[in-house]
Amino acid sequence: MKGAPAIAPRPLLALALAVLAVHLLLLGAAPGRVRVTPASKAQPFTTRSIAAAPRPPAVMPALQPAVLRPVAAVEVRNEIARVSRRPALTPAANTAAAAASSPAEQVPPSSPPAAQPAASHKPATQALAFTIPGSMRLHYQVTARVRSLTWSGQSELVWRHDGDSYEAKMETSAALLPTRTQRSTGRITAEGLAPLRFSDKARSEEAAHFERDKGKVSFSSNRPDAALLPGAQDRLSVMLQLGAMIAAAPGKFPPAAVISIQTAGTRDAEPWLFTVEREEELHLPGGTLSALKLIRNPRREFDQKVELWLSPAMDYVPVRLRLTQPNGDSVDQQWSFTDRG
Questions:
Q1: Tens of pLDDT along 31-55?
Q2: Which of 42, 112, 114, 321 has the most C-beta neighbours closer than 10 Å?
Q3: Is residue 320 part of a domain?
Q4: Closest Cα partner for 89 from 56, 57, 60?
Q5: Is residue 151 domain-resident?
Q6: Number of structural domains the chain divides into
Q7: In which domain, by residue range, is 158 found?
């Protein structure tokens, strides 16, 4: 009789591993683990943070003990209990709670608030009033200093208007110097004076045209056009515009106040900044007057300095005007008398 056939070592090893696997599988089915049976297809388990809903949930979905680990189920139940213990939230409070619990998942309000106007960083523009003086002819004595020499002469400012249109003309003459004539014509509007044409003539004439329908200032000297800004003036009308503004409301222009007005010559149109300095007593050829001084300092190397005195007793018309060039040359015009009518 032959002995039983010997069992090869390799099959024995495979059998031992199979037995061990069965034991491990049985151990894995103990409480605290999730057992997936072939009869029911496993559902994937996903995690997410739970935020407060607009209203407490009336019915929570049934938990699936076959697919949730016990520890995960406890976490979810605790979270459900914590949410259900919260008092009912109003829509406004609900939005705040959602923002606090999950900034990345804020719940929008049911009816968004009315849009607020965007904050503006631009200074508020106050409506200005103007007091336009009556027609008159102002006469001045002129002292000109040119290249260390002093010249004497005279000038006159003719101001006429009919309540709708205006004309201003300044003519200055001195011995051995050419007569210089500046003229401004335009309309009287809600913004005060609105120039249409400004000309400056010494040996030849140049002009600036205020093309309001096109929103620009053009120049006869073929210089580039300039954008026309609200309230723009020329170098003659700006003196009368300043006086009309201050005459209407002197209290709005205390010392150190700055008034910005786009001012056109015959070659450019740039903002001029006038600073209110103080009221001074002037001893002029026409008498002693109290006048408010304004100054426009140069902005660039070749700008002129403008000093202007406006008299309250004479409807804030200019009673003194001094222009100083960068090289020191100056023209000083001082009031001597007035023709009205």
A1: 433 333 334 444 443 334 334 444 5
A2: 321
A3: yes
A4: 56
A5: yes
A6: 1
A7: 136-340
